[in-house]
Amino acid sequence: MLAFRQLMPALGMGGLTEKGIALPILPWWNAVAINDVPAQTEFYSKETGRLLQTLIRDAREPEQVTRLLKVWRNRLSYRLVRSAEEAKIALSQADETGTTLDFIADSLAVGTHKTELESAIEQPLQRILEQVNLALSQADTQPDVIYLTGGSARSLLFARLCSKHYQVSPLSVGMILAPLPQALPAGQRLFSAKFHNPPPGPKSANYTFRACDSPPVMHFCMPVALITSPLENIFVI
User: Fold this and answer.
1) For the CA atoms of 18, 22, 23, 29, what is the dihedral angle to 10 degrees?
2) φ, ψ (nearest 5 deg) of residue 159
3) Which of 14, 48, 82, 145 is deepest in the core (most CB within 10 A)?
4) Which among 125, 123, 116 is positioned nearest to 234, based on CA atoms?
5) Which residue, 210, 211, 228, is CA-closest to 151?
6) Average pLDDT of the segment spanning 42-49
7) What is the pLDDT of residues 107-148, one digit of tens each?
8) Pairing verdict, β 146-149 and 171-176
9) Beta partners for 227?
10) What is the bridge-based pairing of β-strands 207-209 and 171-176?
11) 3-state SS of the chain?
12) Of 153, 154, 3, nearest in space to 82 by CA
C-alpha cells in the first residue's frame, strides 16, 4: 500500500525512541487500513490516542509522531489514503510525483518515484493475482475481459501489470469507479446486460459472483468473480 510505505515515514513511522528502541508500527498501519473496520476502530480508540501521546514523549523526533496524532484527532485516514491514490494516478504518466500533505502539517510534502510505487504494490498485486487465478481455475475458462474498479483503476501502471499477466485485450479500466458497496450492484447491472442470453458451454453454468474472503453475495449464469483487496477491486468475466 503506497500510503503506508511512502507517506507514513513522514508521520514518524520507522522512528526510534530516545533509548534507540523502534517505535511500534501498528498505529501507522491501522491509520491507513481504511478497508479494515477493526483496524480503524482500534486506531481511533482512546487507547491509541494515549499511546500516541506516549510515543511523542519518548520519540527522538516527536514532531513527526505529532503528525500522526493530528490524523487521529481529525480522522484524516481517508484523506491520507486519497492522497496516495492521486499519487498512483500521477505516476501512470510521470516517473515521479509529489504528494502534498499540508492538511497535516504546513509545507509537508512527500516525493514518490515510479519504482517505489512498483515496490509498494508488488505484494498486494500478487495476492490479487492469486485470487484471480483461483476464480479462473474454478471457472475452467479464460477471461474475455477484466474490469478494474476503484481508485487504482485510474492507474495505467496497475492496468499494464494486469494486462501483461493475463494478456487480455481489451482491459477495461475504470468501468466501475466505485467502492465495493456501489460496485456490486453496478456489476450486477453490467454483467446481467452483457450476458442476458449466455451462449451454451462453460459460461452458461451457474457460477458465483463473490467477494474475496466473504460469503457469496450474488450469483450469475457466467464465470464472474469480484476480487477485493486494500489495493484494488477486479471484475473477471
Assistant:
1) 160
2) -60, -40
3) 48
4) 125
5) 228
6) 98
7) 999 999 988 887 877 777 777 777 777 777 776 766 666 666
8) parallel
9) 234
10) unpaired
11) CHHHHHHHHHHCCCCEECCCCECCCHHHHHHHCCCCHHHHHHHCCHHHHHHHHHHHHHECCHHHHHHHHHHHHHCCHHHHHHHHHHHHHHCCCCCEEEEECCCCCCCCEEEEEHHHHHHHHHHHHHHHHHHHHHHHHHHCCCCCCEEEECHHHHCHHHHHHHHHHHCCCCEEEEEECCCHHHHHHHHHHHHHHHCCCCCCCHHHCCEEECECCCCCCEEECCCCEEEECCCCEEEEC
12) 3
| pTM for the whole structure | 0.65
Determine if the peptide bond prior to 181 is cis (ω within 30°).
no
Residue with cell 485470487: 131
Return the C-alpha cell found at 210: 463473490
